[in-house]
């Protein structure tokens, strides 16, 4: 009888150990700004003893739990909550999903007769911003197609074959990807039929972009404007100096000479002095 008892105890211990070690791992993602729901068990709520969600997010950790006696815990305080479906199945609700909600979601659900453990790696899906432009590089025309801040990374292709430069893919700290593809264009190529095709899971249809031919001439137009303005200013300064130089001698000739102190004529003074001397001699 004791042997049967020990066998039962060992069997129960091994079963509980197996339950605790069994983990279901999966990956999922939600669109930016959407509401996300995560399930931890298919058992209805009336058979569940407790549910514990442990969230290891990008910038913090928090915990949400609930048990069948009404006690609950929620240290996330950002709108996440445990809810029940119409069939009384528990799930974690994430409102307005953003980059701050990216992370590892661990869940343990204990029910009558067993438990379930989940590890769910949650990512975000964001459509990229797309653009195309033409630029000059080493005296060559280059078409640049760009898919910016998307997740997952977009795929870029061209309607024409040519000298493709290495695709530049950048992954920023928020988990977003920026992809840039460069295509060198042959001299004299007609770009009217050139298109860039961008594919992304959130695009219902591929984005097809065409470069603006006027943008290709923009650098040359800017250079032409600078040259014209420079020549105009140089000509204005040249003619202004040419007109001002002849006026300088004229201005100097019209200047009145400085007046020196007037010297009295000695010849005008001497007759008057001799006259006074004669008059004085008569009276004497």
Automatic annotation (TrEMBL):
Signal sequence annotation: 1-20
Protein family according to the UniProt entry: Belongs to the CD200R family.
Gene3D superfamilies associated with the record: Immunoglobulins
GO terms for MF: signaling receptor activity
Membrane spanning residue stretches: 218-239
Protein name: Ig-like domain-containing protein
GO cellular component, one term: membrane
Compartments where located: Membrane
Organism: Amphiprion ocellaris
Keyword Lipid biosynthesis attributed: no
């Amino acid at each position: 009888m004791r042997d049967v008892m020990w066998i039962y105890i060992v069997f129960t211990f091994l079963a509980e150990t197996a339950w605790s070690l069994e983990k279901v791992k999966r990956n999922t993602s939600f669109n930016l700004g959407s509401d996300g729901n995560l399930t931890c068990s298919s058992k209805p709520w009336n058979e569940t003893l407790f549910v514990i969600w442990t969230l290891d997010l990008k910038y913090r950790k928090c915990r949400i739990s609930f048990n069948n006696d009404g006690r609950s815990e929620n240290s996330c305080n950002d709108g996440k909550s445990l809810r029940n479906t119409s069939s009384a199945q528990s799930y974690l609700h994430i409102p307005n999903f953003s980059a701050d909600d990216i992370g590892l979601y661990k869940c343990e659900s204990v029910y009558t007769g067993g438990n379930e453990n989940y590890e769910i790696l949650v990512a975000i899906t964001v459509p990229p911003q797309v653009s195309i432009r033409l630029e000059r590089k080493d005296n060559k025309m280059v078409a640049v197609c760009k898919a910016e801040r998307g997740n997952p990374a977009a795929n870029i292709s061209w309607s024409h074959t040519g000298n493709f430069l290495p695709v530049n893919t950048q992954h920023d700290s928020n988990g977003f990807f920026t992809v840039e593809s460069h295509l060198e264009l042959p001299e004299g190529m007609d770009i009217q039929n050139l298109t860039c095709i961008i594919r992304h899971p959130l695009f219902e249809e591929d984005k097809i972009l065409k470069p603006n031919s006027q943008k290709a001439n923009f650098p040359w137009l800017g250079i032409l404007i600078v040259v014209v303005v420079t020549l105009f200013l140089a000509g204005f300064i040249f003619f202004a100096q040419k007109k001002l130089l002849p006026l300088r001698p004229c201005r100097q000739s019209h200047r009145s000479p400085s007046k020196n102190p007037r010297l009295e004529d000695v010849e005008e003074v001497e007759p008057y002095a001799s006259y006074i001397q004669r008059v004085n001699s008569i009276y004497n």
